[in-house]
Amino acid sequence: MLVIAVIAYVLIRRLAGEPAQAKRMLVIPAILVIVGLKDLHGVTGAALAYLVVTGLVTVVLGALRGASIRLFQREGVVFMRYTAVTLGLWVLNIAVKFGSSFLMHVLDPAAATAAGNTLMLSLGLGVLVEGLVVLAKAVRGEGRILWEKGRDGGPHRSAQWLDDLQRRYSGRGPLDR
């Protein structure tokens, strides 16, 4: 239930439009992947094949979601907004996860049980790839990519490596901000 609540919260925020924050797009999904990888201990055979196939599907859908996200600039900062296509891809991703899990339970209950705790890995992979695609699009744009949004009205934090990427790939000179 907690995972569903977090996904709903993120979906609502991103539908409204929020600053593109590299920390949220990279660090949190990477942590989910690491936690999910720890759950793979002892997974072999059909369960491993299932995880590889569903992992590849999750990565592809994450890349497509990232490509579907609309980027725009507000007050010199890159913002991102989910589109109807992004939502449709989320629904498809969830349907694939539940449908493939159900099918695996029907075909090989033992393998399905062995692969059962992979939600963190799947979610982390998909959101990480989505974030990488969004960042790849954003570095070619005009607005500044934030590392982290300022709290309680404080200043936003940037990262030198993001600024350097933007300089390299946007075709512009130094970022004057």
UniProtKB/TrEMBL annotation:
Residues crossing the lipid bilayer are 40-64, 85-107, 119-139
Record keywords: Membrane, Transmembrane, Transmembrane helix
Q: Does the keyword Transmembrane apply?
A: yes
Per the record, the domain of life is Bacteria
Q: What is this protein's record name? A: DUF1453 domain-containing protein
What organism does the record attribute this protein to? Amycolatopsis bartoniae
**Native organism taxonomy:** Bacteria, Bacillati, Actinomycetota, Actinomycetes, Pseudonocardiales
